[in-house]
Design goal:
It comes from Modestobacter versicolor. By secondary structure, this protein is of the alpha/beta class. Helix content is 42%, strand content 21%. It has helices at residues 25-41, 62-84, 102-112, 128-131, 134-141, and strands at residues 16-21, 44-51, 92-99, 117-121, 146-149.
Length: 150
């Protein structure tokens, strides 16, 4: 129970909305939804692109690692450019690129901000039904509301 008049996280609408983006269609829809929510709620939007570890083919095909890095850099540049345009919509936005496991990095950043809401796109990969998608793993962390955008 909080003291009367004390601020309680999440009671006045979200102050900080974190959205995980990776360039996929569902993550771009999540970013658009998060931007609209941030605009309507007068919230700060933090978009995070988590670059993954090396590709499984890197050991077998040396060019695969180079291609993966180039593709990641292209996605990063496109997402950075989209975030910079948020100012035109009246949204206070920040873009971050980090390297590592998406769930670990999104959790770390959401806790550090602290974020009031986390949004991600639904996974389009079949293997995530077995291992668990980023969205499902974030829900299991259970520290903030997680919205999964199809």
């Amino acid at each position: 129970m909080t003291a009367p008049g004390a601020f309680e996280r999440g009671t006045d609408g979200p102050r900080v909305i974190l959205v995980g983006v990776d360039g996929s269609p569902t993550s771009l829809r999540a970013a658009a939804y998060a931007a609209g929510l941030a605009r309507r709620q007068h919230s700060r939007l933090v978009a995070v692109y988590v670059t993954g570890a090396t590709t499984p083919m890197a050991g077998w095909v040396p060019a695969a690692e180079v291609a993966a890095r180039e593709a990641s850099a292209a996605v990063d540049a496109e997402l950075r450019q989209l975030t910079e345009r948020a100012d035109e919509l009246g949204i206070e936005a920040e873009y971050r690129t980090v390297h590592g496991d998406p769930v670990a990095e999104l959790t770390r950043i959401a806790d550090a901000l602290p974020a009031d809401a986390v949004l991600v796109g639904a996974s389009e990969q079949a293997g995530h039904r077995v291992v668990g998608s980023v969205a499902v793993r974030l829900v299991r962390v259970g520290r903030w509301p997680v919205t999964v955008v199809p």
